[in-house]
Structure formats: structure tokens, C-alpha cells
Design goal:
Helix content is 31%, strand content 13%. The protein is α+β, with helices and mostly antiparallel strands. It has two domains: 82 residues, Roll (Ubiquitin-like (UB roll)), CATH 3.10.20.30; 76 residues, DNA polymerase, domain 1 (Orthogonal Bundle), CATH 1.10.150.120. Strand 3 and strand 4 form a beta hairpin. The longest helix has 14 residues. The two termini are 23 Å apart. The C terminus is likely disordered.
Length: 175
């Protein structure tokens, strides 16, 4: 944490930040969520509980779904971070299979929590392309939504797990 710079690989792009308390520097107390939203304009991850309990700020860090409000940017040096903005194909804009399934199954309502749920789903399917319903429920247990019942979310995920979408080739390691 005492490094003068912190380098992150965010959605496939290398970003190096000067750490410190001077103008333009990232304070050592700044969370990854704050860096993503306030410095990089990546606003899909939402600030809600600020305690890592709601899942609205979920991103994928080195293959794991994590609450970005609980991680200090300085502690993420060298990490590969994927946000919702990094799931779509950067050249064509084509949505990832998970994003498309959420649209197809109307697995959202107001949309505030949706990015976190999608990122948790993406991380789950990257590790286990054919999860059981129990595994899906367990993975999503840290994501809260006040608008919808999760049955649309479960239907969207089941559609992906059931047809054996191969996330390996195109989406699994998108960085």
C-alpha cells in the first residue's frame, strides 16, 4: 500500500494511478468503487450500502465477484477488474450472453441493482457454466433487489446454463 503508483487492468486497459494526498492523486483511503465511478466514469457499479452487503457495487476482480466498496484501490495493484461496461464487445457493442439473457427475460426493473447481479452471474458462469439452482441462489445471496422477485433472474441464468453457453471463448477472460 506504500507504493507511489497503483496499476489496475480495467476492462482490458492498463490504468496507472499516482497515489497520495495531492491534487489529482488517488488517496490511499479511496475505494475501488470511488475510483471507478469518480475518476474513470464507469458508473454501472452503484454505491448503495457502502458496507459490502447489497451487491450493487459488484465487479469481477481476478475472476471473483467482489464488492468494490470494500476494496481500497491501493490494495488492488496489479489486479484485473471487469465492470459491466467491459462485458460488451468493445468493437461491435454486442452484449455478452449474460447481458442479452437479462434483456431477453426482463430480469430487471429499475436497474439500480442489475449491474451487480449481472457481474455476480458472469463470475459464477465463468467458473461453472452449468450451475444448479442452489448454486445460483448461493452466488446471488449477496445481491439485493427491492423491485422484482428473482424468478426472472433465475430464468435468464437457467437459459444460459441449460443451453451450455460457452463463456470460455468470448467472455470468460474478457479483460
Amino acid at each position: 500500500m506504500g507504493a507511489e503508483t497503483t496499476t489496475l487492468f480495467i476492462n482490458g486497459m492498463e490504468r496507472t494511478f499516482s497515489m497520495g494526498n495531492h491534487f489529482g492523486q488517488v488517496p490511499c483511503s479511496e475505494t475501488l468503487l470511488e475510483t471507478l465511478r469518480d475518476r474513470l466514469g464507469l458508473t454501472a457499479a452503484k454505491k448503495s450500502c457502502d458496507e459490502g452487503a447489497c451487491g450493487c457495487c459488484t465487479v469481477i476482480k481476478d475472476g471473483e465477484a467482489v464488492p468494490s466498496c470494500m476494496l481500497l484501490t491501493a490494495d488492488c495493484d496489479g489486479a484485473h477488474i471487469t465492470t459491466l461496461e467491459g462485458l460488451a464487445d468493445p468493437e461491435t457493442g454486442e452484449l455478452s450472453a449474460v447481458q442479452q439473457a437479462f434483456l431477453d427475460y426482463n430480469a430487471f426493473q429499475c436497474g439500480f441493482c442489475t449491474p451487480g447481479i449481472i457481474m455476480t452471474t458472469q463470475a459464477l458462469l465463468n467458473k461453472n457454466p452449468h450451475p444448479t439452482e442452489e448454486e445460483v441462489r448461493d452466488a446471488l445471496s449477496g445481491n439485493y433487489c427491492r423491485c422484482i422477485s428473482h424468478y426472472h433472474v433465475f430464468e435468464a441464468i437457467a437459459s444460459l446454463a441449460g443451453r451450455g453457453v460457452d463463456l470460455d471463448e468470448k467472455w470468460r477472460d474478457r479483460r
